[in-house]
Amino acid sequence: MMERRFQVLPLEGIVSFKTGKLNSNAAKPDGTFPFFTCSQETYRTDSWSFDGEYVLLAGNNAAGIYPLKYFNGKFDAYQRTYAIRSIDQKKLFTRYVYYALRLQLELMKSISTGVATKFLTLTMLNRTQVPVPLLATQRKIAAILSAYDDLIENNLRRIKILEEMAQNLYREWFVKFRFSGHQHARFTDSSLGRIPEEWEVKIMPDAVTIRPALPVPKNEQVPFVSMGSLSETSMLINETEFRPKASGARFQNGDTLFARITPCLENGKTGFVQFLPTSDTVACGSTEFIVLRSKTVCPEYVYLMARSDLFRDNAIKSMSGATGRQRVREECFDQFLLAQPPDAILERFQMATRPQFEMIHSLNRRNQNLRRTRDLLLPKLISGEVDVSALDITIPEEAEA
Asked: How far apart are CA 175 and CA 169, in angstroms?
């Protein structure tokens, strides 16, 4: 039979709350340990202040959307990030707390305080109530849901590797000019330094269309991408919505979305569009996107160029406007030079990178399906609507610790 009545308890007295001590500038791109902040992204740093199994909850957010994460190991945290763990693992399983709190995020959004920035106070969190079934049931619920999360995390690792491979290839071929067959190429002096003789130096607008003109879809729902849908570290575009009227930037599959406003640009928000159903579908998005489209190179080249340090530094140096609302001046692209390779080299590059881009898209679609299934199960398991007490589930050793 189903455990019909899960005991409901406030977090006060069953979990401990600690906060990090670091400022956001403690992030190091190549840091040894995870660094949890109030961002959806997980950064890296060289220090650790926590070691063990914790739930990480952002303590503030401009939109009241509080990132919630689970981690087991050494890490550090931003000063407004809560590190939460069970006081007694024999009564409350920390990984179960993570899933129970996922169902409280909308409530947290509604009760948080603040105007420009929303805050979660310790008093609010202590009063938050969660269902607490028997420990064996908690562990089974966590095991079922974590199986989905483990698959998602494995796919994200594969996505990261694929993107790094593509970026490394771009740097080797088009920055260092160590392309396939470069040993036999003759080089000549140019405004970019030594480049292969058959290559041509161009300003970026001669090779890339900026804000391509596209027709406005009429009398239909239009896919819309917000700034929050872009990742700071990969090409992925998630959480799109549909709007009854086209507005803002317009784009199609194969286009790159480049954030033009601070701090989104500095943080790395850049996306590659490949989620639309057809090549003719037009979508729209934030007015703070600059849409980039291949003219004489290829779509994969444009995205990887937009992710390069040289391209981003050029854009950042051009920014102007009021503090906190600075934007890229598009004339800066006239100052960015690139070496246009022959078509044969571009074709070989695209043959190498397009399958990587397509696999990233495929893995992301799998993750979206996994998340949907997990999120459908989550409330049913936490409420006891789906009974798992009699299931024979092997609990991972990590969970037993």
From this structure: 10
392-401 LR contacts (CB < 8 Å, sep 24+) = 393/139, 393/140, 393/143, 393/144, 394/143, 395/139, 395/140, 395/143, 396/143, 396/146, 398/72, 399/93, 399/95, 399/139, 399/142, 399/143, 399/146, 401/53
CA distance 91 to 79: 29
The three-state DSSP-derived secondary structure of 249-292 is: EEECCCCEEEECECCHHHHCCEEECCCCCCCCCCEEECCCEEEE
DSSP codes joined into one string, 94-141: HHHHHHHHHTTHHHHHHH-B-SSSEE--HHHHHH-EEEE--HHHHHHH
Mean pLDDT across the chain = 92
Is 90 exceeded by the pLDDT of residue 219? no
Q: Is 240 helix (H, G, I), strand (E, B) or coil?
A: coil
**Tokens representing residue 150 in the block:** 């483990």
Place of tokens 């007295």: 13
Assign 399 a pLDDT band (cuts: 50, 70, 90).
very low
Q: pLDDT tens digits for 137-190?
A: 999 999 999 999 999 999 999 999 999 999 999 999 999 999 999 999 999 999
Comparing 239 with 150, the larger pLDDT belongs to 150
From first CA to last CA, the distance across the chain in angstroms is 29
Sequence-separated contacts (24+) of 377-381 with Cβ below 8 Å? 377/144, 377/145, 377/148, 378/99, 378/102, 378/103, 378/145, 379/103, 381/99, 381/141, 381/144, 381/145
**202: nearest Cα among 295, 312, 308, 336:** 336
